[in-house]
Amino acid sequence: MTPYTPTSCAGSTPRFHTAPTHYLALALCSMLLLTGCSTTLTYQPNLPAGPARPAGYPIPVYTEDMTIPRPCEVIGTVFVGGGHFTMRGGSAEEETARIIKTAWEKGADAVQVKSVEDPGYSSASYRMMASLLRYTDVWETFAVSESGFAHYLDTHRQNLDPIEGIWDGTGTVPHRIGIVRDHSRPGRDFVGFILGTADPTWHEGYKKIDIQRGVQPGSYVLDYYLDNFSRKEITVILGQNQRFTLNMPTSDEDADIITYSKSR
Length: 264
Fold this sequence. Notes:
Shape: elongated
Distance between the termini: 74 Å
Helix content: 10-25%
Strand order of the largest sheet: 13-12-11-10-9-8-15-14
Number of domains: 2
Oligomer: single chain
Number of strands: 15
Radius of gyration: 29 Å
């Protein structure tokens, strides 16, 4: 709507009438309902950034009341706030995606959202503040190649437990793990570690499962580490089987069904 309304008659010069002031006020209110401040993103560093992550690198996002499974330090803070006028729109998901993109650029391991302000009278866009986090611990790693582990299995084949061996895992990202006897930590009888995967979060040699024997013969209690390094305890009955399946939650509604088949 414009503040001037043209009127004309055939053969006459158009005349322009100024719209009454209260009409202008109504028009501006209507425009404000349809427009708002598009968000701008500001980054405030706290520590030097790390090597950039590739686009698509899995970055877990936590709210302030969620427990982060590994110790972290804050490398910087991202602020998403108002900017120039634009059509009302956007979503918290879109703004979070922008924060994750910044996390990739700064080499962060995780994001913790500290505050979210929904669109309202003072701002037509979401406003968010989030901390970019970097893990400060060293994840347990086993420096054993697949060929070296295969040699171990061949050398000790007469005394191996049924769960020891090389296992191929299906799921969202297929991967391969080795499971070996290990008592280096209290309560642990075996450990499963990554032999190969396309998931950039999990490096070769990273511990994937802590395992102890179950009460029932042929059973094992697994402390299985999810992609965000949180731990889920699950019991499997193996016996002489060469396969076991895990139902691992990925959200409140979805789950990743992972089947491990023994290949060696």
